[in-house]
Design brief:
With about 120 residues, the protein is of the alpha/beta class. It has a single domain, classed as STAS domain (Transcription Regulator spoIIAA), CATH 3.30.750. It is built from five helices and seven strands; from the N terminus they run βββαββαβααβα.
Length: about 120
């Protein structure tokens, strides 16, 4: 496993608990104004470079994302699935939950209310 101590993503804070990567986002919106390519690369590095198989995305402040961001989340989910990994998304703001429901992604992703529940879902 590559050393994660020098990894400093700009779109989320990363906490590692045993073999679980917990990415806590700190923006309330992700739009085309953001560098979504960098955002995707930071997410994908968790799987491709650092070889995490269990990833939790804490979306607590996030109220709005573009379809491009949803695409990055779907790609992350698929990358983990191909590597026998799991993705759990937690603390979904009600506005974002409406977007995920409308696009049928609430049933595609494993979702939980908070980080402890997400960790339990990964056991």
């Amino acid at each position: 496993m590559t050393d994660i101590t020098d990894y400093e993503p700009s779109y989320f804070d990363l906490e590692v608990d045993n073999e679980i990567a917990v990415a806590s986002f700190h923006k309330d919106q992700f739009t085309e104004e953001d560098n979504l390519e960098q955002f995707g690369n930071e997410l994908f590095a968790l799987v491709d470079q650092y070889h995490f198989r269990k990833v939790i995305l804490n979306l607590s402040p996030v109220q709005y994302v573009t379809s491009s961001v949803l695409g990055k989340l779907i790609t992350l989910h698929r990358k983990l699935g191909r590597n026998e990994g799991q993705l759990v998304i937690c603390e979904i703001h009600k506005d974002l939950e409406n977007v995920l429901r409308t696009s049928k992604l609430m049933t595609y992703f494993t979702t939980t209310t908070d980080i402890p529940a997400a960790k339990a879902a990964l056991k």
